[in-house]
Design goal:
Length: 76
């Protein structure tokens, strides 16, 4: 995330988009979070790994993680 060179891995476009968004933030920090720290992200990745389609969501929460997102929101 802190590197100025582009990420050439298959997920590089995600890294580059995140870097672009973070440039507008005054202060940011990237760090590893264990699976238990963000269960919604973990479930979404698992869903993507077993899915044969390329779903996309815009301005809505994927149904596969809705309950988990609500629980995580309540913690904040």
């Amino acid at each position: 995330m802190r590197s100025e060179s582009g990420c050439l891995r298959s997920y590089g476009h995600l890294i580059e988009e995140a870097k672009t968004l973070l440039q507008s933030a005054g202060h940011w920090e990237a760090k590893h979070v264990r699976r238990t720290g963000n269960e919604a992200a973990h479930l979404l990745v698992r869903f993507a790994c077993i899915s044969n389609v390329e779903p996309s969501w815009f301005l809505e929460c994927p149904t596969c993680i809705q309950a988990t997102v609500l629980v995580e929101q309540a913690r904040c």
